[in-house]
């Protein structure tokens, strides 16, 4: 059982019951932000080359940062569970479908709706923009320095990556 989180007055920390299948099978749950982390829109950004025709990726997805597939594969090999945590308006289905185009299966997706729903029950006076412990996430990767600062304040682990 996880310890009560000091940044949370409610005291319940961990994945919501609807998301908790598979807990215990993995050594670590890692989540990734989307905008400027997995997706880089800069024309100079290096992106993954998929196996499907280019127009399929244009219709159903966005450019995926080069190296994502090998990183996810290595994390899986090391026993990590892979999640996406975005506070954008993308639907969870959309995110799963987009990553499947690149052969990446994720174990969970937190979008803005789910984030807000979970935050409303945690009793924060000023909820952080992201709060990975609410979903049992051990490490969150994000380009935002603000999220990293929130992590230091609310005591969750985050890794800040460059947006380019
Ligand atoms: Mg971002």
Description:
The chain is of the alpha/beta class and 164 residues long. It has a single domain (26-160), classed as 3-Layer(aba) Sandwich (Rossmann fold). 27% of the residues lie in helices and 13% in strands. The protein is built from 5 helices and 5 strands, in the order βααβαβαβαβ. The protein has helices spanning 54-60, 68-77, 92-100, 112-120, 145-154, and strands at 28-32, 80-85, 108-110, 139-142, 158-160. A 5-stranded parallel beta sheet has the order 3-2-1-4-5, with helices on both faces. Helix 5 (145-154) links the parallel strand 4 and strand 5 (158-160). It is globular, with a radius of gyration of 16 Å. It starts with 27 loop residues before the first strand and ends with a strand. The model is unreliable at 1-12 (pLDDT under 50). Magnesium ion is lined by residues 33, 35-37, 142-144. Residues 33, 35-37, 142-144 line the site of magnesium ion (MG).
Topology:
Blueprint: E1 28-32, H1 54-60, H2 68-77, E2 80-85, H3 92-100, E3 108-110, H4 112-120, E4 139-142, H5 145-154, E5 158-160
Parallel strand pairs: 1-2, 1-4, 2-3, 4-5
Bound molecules: magnesium ion.
| Average of pLDDT | 85
What is the gyration radius calculated from CA atoms?
16 Å
Count structural domains: 1
The largest sheet, given as strand count, sense and whether it forms a barrel, is: 5 strands, parallel
Termini separation comes to 38 Å
Helix-strand category: alpha/beta
Number of strands: 5
Architecture, CATH level 2? 3-Layer(aba) Sandwich
Superfamily at the CATH H level?
Answer: HAD superfamily/HAD-like
With strands numbered from the N-terminus, the spatial order across the biggest sheet is 3-2-1-4-5
Query: What compounds sit in this structure?
Result: magnesium ion
């Amino acid at each position: 059982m996880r310890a009560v989180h000091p940044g949370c007055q409610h005291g319940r920390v961990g994945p919501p019951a609807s998301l908790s299948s598979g807990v215990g099978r993995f050594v670590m749950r890692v989540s990734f932000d989307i905008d400027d982390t997995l997706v880089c829109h800069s024309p100079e950004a290096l992106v993954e080359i998929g196996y499907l025709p280019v127009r399929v990726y244009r219709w159903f997805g966005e450019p995926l940062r080069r190296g994502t597939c090998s990183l996810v594969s290595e994390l899986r090999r090391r026993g990590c569970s892979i999640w996406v945590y975005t506070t954008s308006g993308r639907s969870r289905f959309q995110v799963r479908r987009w990553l499947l185009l690149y052969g990446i299966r994720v174990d969970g997706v937190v979008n803005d709706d789910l984030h807000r729903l979970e935050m409303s029950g945690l009793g924060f006076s000023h909820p952080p923009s992201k709060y990975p412990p609410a979903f049992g996430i051990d490490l969150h990767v994000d380009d935002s320095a603000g999220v990293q600062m929130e992590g230091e304040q609310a005591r969750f682990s985050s890794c800040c990556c460059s947006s380019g």
